[in-house]
Amino acid sequence: MTDDVSAPEPAHSAPVLDQHLCFTLYAASRAITGAYRPLLDPLGLTYPQYLVMVALGEHGTVSVKELVAVLRLDYGTVTPLIKRLEANGLLKRERRADDERVVQVALTPEGLALHQHLSSVPPAIGEAVGLAPDEIATLQELVRRLTVNVNRHNNAVAAQRTT
To answer: What pTM does this model have?
Structure first.
C-alpha cells in the first residue's frame, strides 16, 4: 500500500496564466514596446512620446483634448508627455486666441525634422514582429474589434451601475 499525498483536484480548476487572454495581450504589448526602445533611445524618445510625435505628425495642430482622444489616454498621462516634448523643443503649446480655455499643440520645426526620422521605425518593428503584412492587418483588425467589444461591454456595465 502506498501513501498518495498529492493535493486533491479542484472541481473547477482556474485557467493557467498563459490561458488568460489579458496576459497574452499584455506580454505581446510589453514585447513590442521593448522592440521600440533601441530604435527610440538614440532619438531621445520614450515609446509614449513617440506616439505623441506620430499623432501630431498625422493630425497637425490639435487641442490637448483631441490629442487625448486620438491616443486613447487620459489628461494625467498626456500632459507630462506634452511638457517633456515641449521642454525638448519638439512641440509647442498655445492657447487658442478665440477660446483661451483650449490649449493647442503642434510640432516645432525641430519636431517636424525628428518626425521625418520616425519613418524608419515601423519597418523595423514589422521585421521584429515576424509576421507577413496580411497577418499584421488581420491581427490589427481583430485587436481593434476586441477593443470596441470590450469598451462596449464596459460602457454597458457602467450604465447598469448608475441605474
So the answer is: 0.84
